[in-house]
Amino acid sequence: MGTTATGKTDAAAHLSDCFDAEIISVDSSLVYRGMDIGTAKPDQAFLEKYPHHLIDIRDPNDTYSSADFYQDAVALIDDITGRGKVPILAGGTHFYYSALEEGLAQLPPANAQLRSEIDADAKTHGWPVMHERLGALDPLSAARIDAHDAQRIQRALEIVLQSGKTVDAHNDDRKPPIANPLVKIALCFSDRHFLHERIEQRFDIMLEQGLQKEVESLLDGGIDPNTPAMRMIGYRQMLEFLKNDLTYQEMRQKGIVATRQLAKRQLTWLRNSSNITWWVDFGLKNKNFSHLEQFVSQLVKQNSHS
Protein backbone atom coordinates (compact mmCIF):
# COMPACT_ATOMS: atom_id res chain seq x y z
CA MET A 1 0.00 0.00 0.00
CA GLY A 2 1.04 3.62 -0.18
CA THR A 3 0.72 6.83 -2.14
CA THR A 4 1.64 7.06 -5.78
CA ALA A 5 5.37 6.99 -6.66
CA THR A 6 6.58 5.30 -3.45
CA GLY A 7 7.92 2.06 -4.95
CA LYS A 8 5.06 -0.38 -4.37
CA THR A 9 5.75 -2.32 -7.57
CA ASP A 10 9.42 -2.90 -6.74
CA ALA A 11 8.54 -3.95 -3.19
CA ALA A 12 5.91 -6.42 -4.38
CA ALA A 13 8.28 -7.91 -6.95
CA HIS A 14 11.00 -8.47 -4.38
CA LEU A 15 8.60 -10.00 -1.89
CA SER A 16 7.35 -12.40 -4.56
CA ASP A 17 10.95 -13.61 -4.87
CA CYS A 18 11.27 -14.02 -1.10
CA PHE A 19 8.04 -15.93 -0.65
CA ASP A 20 6.22 -18.47 -2.77
CA ALA A 21 3.81 -15.78 -3.85
CA GLU A 22 1.72 -14.32 -6.65
CA ILE A 23 0.98 -10.61 -7.11
CA ILE A 24 -2.54 -9.21 -7.39
CA SER A 25 -2.71 -5.65 -8.70
CA VAL A 26 -4.86 -3.33 -6.57
CA ASP A 27 -4.87 -0.47 -9.07
CA SER A 28 -8.00 0.72 -10.84
CA SER A 29 -5.96 2.19 -13.72
CA LEU A 30 -3.86 -0.86 -14.60
CA VAL A 31 -6.90 -2.93 -15.58
CA TYR A 32 -7.15 -1.12 -18.92
CA ARG A 33 -5.46 -2.43 -22.05
CA GLY A 34 -3.51 0.08 -24.14
CA MET A 35 -3.23 2.58 -21.30
CA ASP A 36 0.38 1.97 -20.37
CA ILE A 37 2.33 5.22 -20.26
CA GLY A 38 -0.16 7.37 -18.38
CA THR A 39 -0.75 4.66 -15.77
CA ALA A 40 2.98 3.96 -15.21
CA LYS A 41 2.23 0.33 -15.99
CA PRO A 42 5.23 -2.00 -15.57
CA ASP A 43 6.73 -2.88 -18.94
CA GLN A 44 6.30 -6.25 -20.62
CA ALA A 45 9.71 -7.58 -19.59
CA PHE A 46 8.96 -6.81 -15.94
CA LEU A 47 5.50 -8.40 -16.14
CA GLU A 48 6.93 -11.52 -17.76
CA LYS A 49 9.34 -11.87 -14.85
CA TYR A 50 6.78 -10.83 -12.22
CA PRO A 51 3.28 -11.66 -13.50
CA HIS A 52 0.47 -9.57 -12.02
CA HIS A 53 -3.14 -10.62 -11.81
CA LEU A 54 -5.78 -8.00 -12.80
CA ILE A 55 -3.66 -6.07 -15.30
CA ASP A 56 -4.91 -5.55 -18.89
CA ILE A 57 -8.29 -7.18 -18.29
CA ARG A 58 -10.61 -4.45 -19.62
CA ASP A 59 -11.02 -2.36 -22.74
CA PRO A 60 -10.89 1.39 -21.91
CA ASN A 61 -14.50 1.79 -23.06
CA ASP A 62 -15.57 -0.71 -20.39
CA THR A 63 -16.00 -0.04 -16.70
CA TYR A 64 -14.39 -1.86 -13.79
CA SER A 65 -16.15 -1.33 -10.50
CA SER A 66 -15.31 -2.08 -6.88
CA ALA A 67 -17.74 -4.98 -7.13
CA ASP A 68 -15.81 -6.35 -10.13
CA PHE A 69 -12.55 -6.08 -8.20
CA TYR A 70 -14.06 -7.69 -5.10
CA GLN A 71 -15.32 -10.67 -7.10
CA ASP A 72 -12.06 -11.10 -9.02
CA ALA A 73 -9.77 -10.60 -6.02
CA VAL A 74 -11.68 -12.96 -3.70
CA ALA A 75 -11.55 -15.69 -6.35
CA LEU A 76 -7.81 -15.11 -6.88
CA ILE A 77 -7.02 -15.08 -3.16
CA ASP A 78 -8.89 -18.37 -2.69
CA ASP A 79 -7.11 -19.91 -5.68
CA ILE A 80 -3.62 -18.73 -4.69
CA THR A 81 -3.93 -19.76 -1.05
CA GLY A 82 -5.53 -23.03 -2.12
CA ARG A 83 -2.33 -23.81 -4.03
CA GLY A 84 -0.26 -23.12 -0.93
CA LYS A 85 1.06 -19.76 -2.11
CA VAL A 86 0.96 -16.26 -0.64
CA PRO A 87 -1.16 -13.59 -2.38
CA ILE A 88 0.60 -10.21 -2.42
CA LEU A 89 -1.81 -7.34 -3.00
CA ALA A 90 0.00 -4.28 -4.34
CA GLY A 91 -1.39 -0.95 -5.47
CA GLY A 92 -2.79 2.38 -4.41
CA THR A 93 -6.55 2.06 -5.03
CA HIS A 94 -7.42 2.05 -1.39
CA PHE A 95 -11.19 1.64 -1.63
CA TYR A 96 -10.43 -1.77 -3.18
CA TYR A 97 -8.68 -2.74 0.05
CA SER A 98 -11.67 -1.44 1.99
CA ALA A 99 -13.96 -3.69 -0.04
CA LEU A 100 -11.91 -6.74 0.94
CA GLU A 101 -11.59 -5.78 4.61
CA GLU A 102 -15.05 -4.42 5.26
CA GLY A 103 -17.20 -6.18 2.70
CA LEU A 104 -19.00 -4.47 -0.15
CA ALA A 105 -22.43 -2.94 -0.41
CA GLN A 106 -24.71 -4.24 -3.14
CA LEU A 107 -24.95 -1.13 -5.30
CA PRO A 108 -27.02 -0.58 -8.45
CA PRO A 109 -25.22 -1.22 -11.75
CA ALA A 110 -23.86 1.52 -13.98
CA ASN A 111 -26.44 3.53 -15.89
CA ALA A 112 -24.96 4.95 -19.09
CA GLN A 113 -27.75 7.46 -19.73
CA LEU A 114 -27.68 8.82 -16.19
CA ARG A 115 -23.89 9.10 -16.28
CA SER A 116 -24.11 11.09 -19.50
CA GLU A 117 -26.58 13.47 -17.88
CA ILE A 118 -24.32 13.91 -14.84
CA ASP A 119 -21.31 14.51 -17.10
CA ALA A 120 -23.23 17.10 -19.11
CA ASP A 121 -24.20 18.95 -15.93
CA ALA A 122 -20.59 18.78 -14.70
CA LYS A 123 -19.33 20.20 -17.99
CA THR A 124 -21.68 23.15 -17.55
CA HIS A 125 -21.34 23.78 -13.83
CA GLY A 126 -18.08 22.05 -12.80
CA TRP A 127 -17.45 19.12 -10.49
CA PRO A 128 -17.32 21.22 -7.28
CA VAL A 129 -20.95 22.22 -7.94
CA MET A 130 -21.82 18.56 -8.56
CA HIS A 131 -20.13 17.77 -5.25
CA GLU A 132 -22.40 20.33 -3.55
CA ARG A 133 -25.39 18.64 -5.19
CA LEU A 134 -24.20 15.31 -3.85
CA GLY A 135 -23.88 16.90 -0.40
CA ALA A 136 -27.57 17.81 -0.47
CA LEU A 137 -28.58 14.26 -1.48
CA ASP A 138 -25.99 12.16 0.36
CA PRO A 139 -24.02 14.21 2.92
CA LEU A 140 -21.97 11.28 4.23
CA SER A 141 -20.72 10.31 0.77
CA ALA A 142 -19.92 13.93 -0.04
CA ALA A 143 -17.90 14.22 3.16
CA ARG A 144 -15.77 11.24 2.09
CA ILE A 145 -15.17 12.42 -1.48
CA ASP A 146 -12.93 15.26 -2.59
CA ALA A 147 -14.74 18.06 -4.44
CA HIS A 148 -12.58 17.46 -7.54
CA ASP A 149 -12.78 13.65 -7.62
CA ALA A 150 -14.98 13.46 -10.72
CA GLN A 151 -15.21 9.67 -10.95
CA ARG A 152 -16.34 9.11 -7.37
CA ILE A 153 -18.72 12.08 -7.38
CA GLN A 154 -20.30 10.76 -10.55
CA ARG A 155 -20.73 7.25 -9.15
CA ALA A 156 -22.22 8.46 -5.85
CA LEU A 157 -24.69 10.71 -7.66
CA GLU A 158 -25.57 7.89 -10.02
CA ILE A 159 -26.33 5.59 -7.06
CA VAL A 160 -28.55 8.03 -5.17
CA LEU A 161 -30.38 9.33 -8.25
CA GLN A 162 -30.94 5.84 -9.63
CA SER A 163 -32.00 4.13 -6.41
CA GLY A 164 -33.32 6.96 -4.27
CA LYS A 165 -31.09 5.68 -1.47
CA THR A 166 -27.76 6.97 -0.15
CA VAL A 167 -24.64 4.89 -0.59
CA ASP A 168 -24.59 4.00 3.11
CA ALA A 169 -28.23 2.89 2.96
CA HIS A 170 -27.11 0.04 0.71
CA ASN A 171 -24.79 -1.27 3.42
CA ASP A 172 -27.44 -3.47 5.01
CA ASP A 173 -27.01 -5.96 2.17
CA ARG A 174 -23.27 -6.45 1.97
CA LYS A 175 -20.93 -9.00 0.55
CA PRO A 176 -18.80 -10.28 3.46
CA PRO A 177 -15.18 -9.29 4.10
CA ILE A 178 -12.48 -11.81 3.25
CA ALA A 179 -11.83 -14.44 5.89
CA ASN A 180 -8.07 -13.97 6.21
CA PRO A 181 -6.92 -10.60 7.62
CA LEU A 182 -4.56 -8.48 5.55
CA VAL A 183 -1.01 -7.83 6.70
CA LYS A 184 -0.85 -4.18 5.71
CA ILE A 185 2.40 -2.37 4.94
CA ALA A 186 2.28 1.22 3.74
CA LEU A 187 5.23 2.79 1.95
CA CYS A 188 5.92 6.49 2.43
CA PHE A 189 8.69 9.08 2.43
CA SER A 190 9.74 11.09 5.44
CA ASP A 191 10.21 14.18 3.25
CA ARG A 192 7.04 15.31 1.49
CA HIS A 193 9.07 17.45 -0.89
CA PHE A 194 10.92 14.37 -2.09
CA LEU A 195 7.60 12.72 -2.95
CA HIS A 196 6.56 15.85 -4.85
CA GLU A 197 9.81 15.75 -6.81
CA ARG A 198 9.27 12.09 -7.70
CA ILE A 199 5.74 12.84 -8.86
CA GLU A 200 6.98 15.67 -11.08
CA GLN A 201 9.79 13.54 -12.49
CA ARG A 202 7.45 10.66 -13.21
CA PHE A 203 4.96 12.87 -15.01
CA ASP A 204 7.74 14.31 -17.13
CA ILE A 205 8.91 10.78 -17.95
CA MET A 206 5.39 9.93 -19.11
CA LEU A 207 5.42 12.94 -21.41
CA GLU A 208 8.84 11.97 -22.77
CA GLN A 209 7.73 8.38 -23.33
CA GLY A 210 4.84 9.53 -25.51
CA LEU A 211 1.72 10.11 -23.42
CA GLN A 212 0.37 12.40 -26.13
CA LYS A 213 0.74 9.72 -28.81
CA GLU A 214 -0.83 7.15 -26.52
CA VAL A 215 -3.91 9.32 -25.98
CA GLU A 216 -4.14 10.12 -29.69
CA SER A 217 -3.91 6.41 -30.49
CA LEU A 218 -6.68 5.59 -28.03
CA LEU A 219 -8.93 8.22 -29.59
CA ASP A 220 -8.11 7.01 -33.11
CA GLY A 221 -8.96 3.48 -31.95
CA GLY A 222 -12.47 4.51 -30.99
CA ILE A 223 -12.10 5.05 -27.27
CA ASP A 224 -14.77 7.40 -25.94
CA PRO A 225 -13.06 10.47 -24.43
CA ASN A 226 -15.83 10.62 -21.81
CA THR A 227 -15.28 7.11 -20.48
CA PRO A 228 -14.07 6.87 -16.84
CA ALA A 229 -10.72 5.50 -18.03
CA MET A 230 -10.03 8.68 -19.99
CA ARG A 231 -10.79 10.84 -16.96
CA MET A 232 -7.82 9.39 -15.09
CA ILE A 233 -5.02 11.77 -14.14
CA GLY A 234 -2.73 12.45 -17.06
CA TYR A 235 -5.25 11.36 -19.68
CA ARG A 236 -7.77 14.01 -18.62
CA GLN A 237 -5.21 16.81 -18.83
CA MET A 238 -3.83 15.55 -22.14
CA LEU A 239 -7.34 15.51 -23.60
CA GLU A 240 -7.75 19.14 -22.57
CA PHE A 241 -4.47 19.96 -24.30
CA LEU A 242 -5.50 18.14 -27.48
CA LYS A 243 -8.77 20.11 -27.48
CA ASN A 244 -6.70 23.32 -27.19
CA ASP A 245 -8.26 24.08 -23.81
CA LEU A 246 -4.79 24.09 -22.21
CA THR A 247 -1.30 24.97 -23.34
CA TYR A 248 1.34 22.25 -23.08
CA GLN A 249 2.81 23.78 -19.94
CA GLU A 250 -0.65 24.22 -18.37
CA MET A 251 -1.39 20.56 -19.12
CA ARG A 252 1.87 19.48 -17.53
CA GLN A 253 1.32 21.60 -14.43
CA LYS A 254 -2.29 20.50 -13.97
CA GLY A 255 -1.25 16.85 -14.28
CA ILE A 256 1.44 17.24 -11.63
CA VAL A 257 -0.87 19.12 -9.26
CA ALA A 258 -3.63 16.54 -9.69
CA THR A 259 -1.18 13.73 -8.93
CA ARG A 260 -0.01 15.51 -5.78
CA GLN A 261 -3.62 15.94 -4.70
CA LEU A 262 -4.19 12.23 -5.27
CA ALA A 263 -1.17 11.40 -3.13
CA LYS A 264 -2.51 13.66 -0.37
CA ARG A 265 -5.88 11.86 -0.43
CA GLN A 266 -4.16 8.49 -0.40
CA LEU A 267 -2.04 9.48 2.59
CA THR A 268 -5.09 10.76 4.48
CA TRP A 269 -6.88 7.46 3.86
CA LEU A 270 -3.89 5.48 5.10
CA ARG A 271 -3.54 7.59 8.24
CA ASN A 272 -7.21 7.03 9.02
CA SER A 273 -6.93 3.27 8.54
CA SER A 274 -6.19 0.74 11.25
CA ASN A 275 -3.49 -1.91 11.68
CA ILE A 276 -1.08 -0.40 9.16
CA THR A 277 2.68 -0.80 9.57
CA TRP A 278 4.61 2.05 7.96
CA TRP A 279 7.76 1.43 5.94
CA VAL A 280 9.45 4.81 5.66
CA ASP A 281 11.88 5.75 2.84
CA PHE A 282 11.74 2.26 1.36
CA GLY A 283 14.38 1.75 -1.35
CA LEU A 284 15.38 5.41 -1.16
CA LYS A 285 19.13 4.98 -0.88
CA ASN A 286 19.60 1.56 -2.43
CA LYS A 287 17.78 -1.55 -3.56
CA ASN A 288 18.82 -3.77 -0.66
CA PHE A 289 15.51 -5.31 0.36
CA SER A 290 16.79 -7.75 2.99
CA HIS A 291 15.37 -5.69 5.85
CA LEU A 292 11.96 -5.62 4.19
CA GLU A 293 12.01 -9.41 3.81
CA GLN A 294 12.79 -9.88 7.50
CA PHE A 295 10.20 -7.28 8.41
CA VAL A 296 7.41 -8.94 6.44
CA SER A 297 8.36 -12.42 7.62
CA GLN A 298 7.98 -11.29 11.22
CA LEU A 299 4.63 -9.68 10.51
CA VAL A 300 3.37 -12.85 8.82
CA LYS A 301 4.47 -14.93 11.83
CA GLN A 302 2.76 -12.55 14.23
CA ASN A 303 -0.41 -12.63 12.14
CA SER A 304 -0.45 -16.43 11.99
CA HIS A 305 -0.24 -16.63 15.79
CA SER A 306 -2.92 -14.01 16.45
Low-confidence stretches: none
**Which shape, going by the Cα principal axes?**
globular
Taking all Cα atoms into account, the compactness measure Rg is 20 Å
Query: What proportion of the residues is helical, as a percent range?
Result: 40-55%
Classified by CATH, the class of the domain at 8-104 and 182-215 and 257-305 is Alpha Beta
CATH superfamily of the domain at 8-104 and 182-215 and 257-305: P-loop containing nucleotide triphosphate hydrolases
Mean pLDDT: 90
CATH architecture tag of the domain at 8-104 and 182-215 and 257-305 = 3-Layer(aba) Sandwich
* CATH topology title of the domain at 8-104 and 182-215 and 257-305: Rossmann fold
Approximately what portion of the residues adopt beta-strand conformation?
A: 5-15%
What about the largest sheet?
3 strands, parallel
End-to-end distance, in Å?
A: 22 Å
Structural class: mainly alpha
Widest sheet: strand ordering? 2-1-3
**Secondary-structure element series:** HEHEHEHEHHHHEEHHHHEH
Salient structural properties:
single chain, 306 residues, mainly alpha, Rossmann fold, three-stranded parallel β-sheet, two-stranded antiparallel ribbon, 13 helices, 7 strands
Task: Report on this structure.
This protein is mainly alpha-helical and 306 residues long. The protein has a domain at 8-104 and 182-215 and 257-305: 3-Layer(aba) Sandwich (Rossmann fold), CATH 3.40.50.300. The protein has 13 helices and 7 strands. The chain has helices at residues 8-18, 44-49, 66-82, 94-102, 112-125, 127-137, 139-144, 150-163, 192-209, 211-220, 235-242, 248-271, 290-305; strands at 21-25, 52-53, 86-90, 104-105, 174-175, 184-188, 276-280. It has a 3-stranded parallel β-sheet with strand order 2-1-3, sandwiched between helices. The chain has a two-stranded antiparallel ribbon with strand order 4-5. Strands 6-7 form a two-stranded parallel ribbon. The longest helix has 24 residues, at 248-271. The mean pLDDT is 90.
